[in-house]
Amino acid sequence: MRKQTFYQKTRLNNGSTLGVIKIPGAFPVTISAYIKAGFRHDPSNRPGLAHFTEHMLFNGTKNYPSSALLSQSINQHGGWHDAFTWIEYQRHMIHLPKLQLKKGIEILFETLVNPIINNEGLEQEKGVVKEEILKRRENPETAIWDFAWNPLFFKGTCLSHPCTGVEKDVKNISTRDVGNFISDHFLADSTVFIVAGDVDLESSVKLFDEYSTIYNRKSFLHSQNEVSNSGERVKVNFIDSDQTAIMFGVKTIPYAHQDRHVLDFITDCLGGYFGARLPQRLRDEGGLIYNWNMWQDNLDETGYLFFSASASKENQYKITSLVKEEFEKLSNKKLSDSDMKLAKGHITGSLISNMETVTDFARWYGFQESMRGKSISPNEQENMYKKISSQEVFEVASKYFQKNNFYIAAIGPTDAEKLGKSLEEK
To answer: Which residues does the UniProt record annotate as the domain Peptidase M16 C-terminal (predicted)?
Structure first.
């Protein structure tokens, strides 16, 4: 049975948005904060600072003065504490049994307002982040972002560096840098709080307002780093290995653009499942790849849609040609009724079947509220997908799936000139 949920939001006394998703009968609660403090906000001389600051918030607080005491305050109730930094935002999340809602809210505010930032903790965390950097570099599926796609698509902007920074960047970070980043970006009116579980708006507001008075810094007039993509369309990072990791993408649109939902549909149709066009062509029929990823990411002012996979040296150029061919098919011919039925069935079915836990609902509404200040329900999104026509798919694909809008990033034993030629093939 599909869970019946009720979403309401309000403004807290400190100026933050609070969204509450009531899920009757749910035993746990997920409490989260979405803060406009992603790595697009890194100072130009401190790449990786947003991500590093996220790490520092787990090192202890005024009332929980060590990382062990902080984690145990949640673990003793069977809960977990997690955080994530991406381009636009940081997400800090605590998951606990419903009876510990107040404790979870208190701990969340503690980490945002009273983190311990000292030299001892700083140097320890530098070691942790260095290991994360090395791990990302050794994994082609993450290295391609840091050293190929981001440097290509965001060349000359703050997003052209790895979200973690590199070793020398982390080495230069000071306690003052972390403190200043928190003061500048952990702001009440730039934060969305979300609670999901068997909770109601009125009682949640009372609990949040009890603690939100200590989280009351307001935005001041300052510009966020602007991002855009460069004119280059191919970026290669040569590494002598057995496989090449490849990302084939197109520039799309900002998050608020009306074409986003149709592009979601196109993304799913091309690579969202085993029977989708690209996996069918490359894996099931061609035996050219093992796994793949297909995604659309939309920022405040731009966006991109991509297909990624790893392939042997001898197959990589064939793959890029086939991916380009499948992209162009959607802009040259409308999908058949049977193709539309399959695609709609998958995208709507996977949307609803993946909305299962309180954390799923917290992420659904938190991301939307952070990006736009408003949201739609999963059911509303489902209905929007159902109404998409083959003509809309054709028109939107024709806008973006053009030869002069294709980008290729690769890391491995590859050749930029050969990849570039695959973009020009008819």
So the answer is: 173-344
